[in-house]
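[Solved] Which block belongs to which protein?

Original post:
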Amino acid sequence: MQYPAFYDYMTCMGVNPCWGWLNTNETWRNATQARADELNVEYGKLVAQRRGEFKNFKLLYFNPDLDTIIGQYMAAPVAAGSSLKRERCANHSIHSFIGLTD
């Protein structure tokens, strides 16, 4: 199944866990990512400003470079005899990681 059909199916069924990103509309996906990027910057600032202010918990900001991590995974050799199939989509590396295709 190609990812656009899967996204549309989840949306139609009312079970799409992340409509902003898992959407066939490029404008919505881009807007969702832009807002997420803005929030990541603000969250990083908040954690830096408030670090050490709370005695019962610690604030942590973790923003992994998923493109690099997935790229390393995709470049790693596949064990002989494995049925694992790795394919990189042109613009959607996370999609290839979870097994969906363009």
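(Second protein starts here: sequence line, then its structure tokens.)
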Amino acid sequence: MDCYYHIDVVRGKRIELRVNYFNTEFGADVLMVYDDGLGGANSPLLKNMTGWYDSNSTPIMSSGNSMTLRFISDPQITYDGFSFTYTAV
């Protein structure tokens, strides 16, 4: 599976992305968070996540008003997945 999630907020604002929960198969299920763009080669990678992250993790901040999340997963083993909350700041 290869899924993209694109977040846009009003111009002049940035995105603060907070982890509610994150639990994926370490090494096989990966979430990449890109700054702006569409998650392509020219978009800076803000965070590469796999395995388990605490909800008290430091928020991920964009430099502009858009962010792209790309999740790559294999079908072998399933975990709880993830949930995020974002805010325009």
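Accepted answer:
You had them paired correctly. Confirming on the second one: The chain has one domain: 2-52+65-83.
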